[in-house]
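Lab notebook: predicted structure, single chain.

Context: the supervisor wants predicted structures on file for every construct in the current expression panel, including those that have not yet been purified. This is the next one on the list. No modifications to the sequence; it matches the entry in the shared construct table.
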Amino acid sequence: MTQESRQITTKIAYLTNGCCEAANPAHEALFAQLGLAHSMHEEQFYPLTESETRFIAEDLLPLGPNWALIGYSALHNGKKYLAPTVEFQFCSDSANDFTKAQAKEQYDAFKPLLEALAEITDGYFLHHDEPAIEFDVGDGFYSAELLIPFAYAQAQATDLASWCEHLETLGRNAAIELGMIQTKAA
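Prediction complete. Output recorded below exactly as produced.
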């Protein structure tokens, strides 16, 4: 698969949000139609199975030179994916924050790492030209999502701690190879 085919330019269906909550209860009918496994949480539909929930948390993880939110998961082409997400925020009225142009520059500079990690994990990535959210006051953010198949995570780790260690190492090594971060001199 080429890197271009690993980039998704359309919207995806989020299964869980950054707080690991079910993003859309209406997915229950879709899951039944697709034959996808799920679980129940407090008698409510939850889009991930117990074994899949081991790989998400309401937390941040270093991913190359940035921090990724690791509570997100998504549905793409009828399959479930982990969706570590990096947000590049901008603010129109603060001297201490990135401007929209600076945030876009940082976001675009992150794309090679997304491409590399999608290739390594047999996953996908989302990279759009427009902000994910932009408010009328000029604040907002660009959002970079990496879609990693749950099967990849389950083959690499047994729990959240070992998954986070694997993903952090993967991101660091790819970022070093791409020259995005430097190693400390011995």
